Amino acid sequence: MQNSTHELIAPLPQLPVYFSVYETDSSLVPSHWHEHIEIVMILEGTLHFNIHEQDYFLFPNDIFLVNSSDIHSTQTSGYSRILLLQIPWHYIEQYIRDFSSVRFSEYFSSKALSNDPSFLDMQRQLFALAGLFYEKSDGYELAFNARLHDFLHTLYLHFSTRSSAGSKGQKNTARLREILSFIEQHYKEPVTLRKAAEAAALNPEYFCRIFKKYTGITFLEYVNQVRLTHIYEELLSTQDTVTEILARNGFTNYKVFSRMFRDTYGGTPTAIRKEKKA
Question: Which of 72, 103, 198, 246 would give a disulfide with 251, using CB separation of 3.0 to 4.6 Å?
């Protein structure tokens, strides 16, 4: 998963979707959005989702779906192995009438749905997709696409609703997506709440309220999260000192940085750099 406010995906060759099983160890992806539909299933470890003012903690065999353009953040603590399926909007749109009005269910608890045949069928399809993808036997693409369509058919028939467009909430999330993009472009600078509110044509008080409502954290906490993820990437990809990396990414309060880094990645910058490069 990528640390940007607007994720872009590219389907894999011969497949209409992006699919992988990836491993992560104490990761943070700040609030972001994407046009595609994203499905994750936890294979090992845990994953924390924040979306629509709610926190979800996913455990092995749980499934979570992110609808197009929904703002969300994710975080893992310790080792996790996660199945990831990202489906371009235009791919589903060609099969479902008025797809823009369709919303899929989000949280699928394997414990709560252990006797639901539709949920169990989706689980089986995802495991089958993983097997086909990694075996890559001759003609596997045909079987993969068939399983994918079975999965989407079950999802659409049993776990979708239709909603009207143009609600106040949708307008606010559209506005917030612009704010997140603004922060991603300016996080290296001394970004103030007032500057961000002006860029969104909102008064600061209302800006603060909707930002906390849709991301679950304050504006400053979010800016520091974005900086933190970029600092983490540079810590592992460069030989620069921590002080140089912090200055380059706009983080001026070392005490706050040190606490956030330890809470997120489970150690000091020096220790994590040494561990990951060992």
Answer: 246
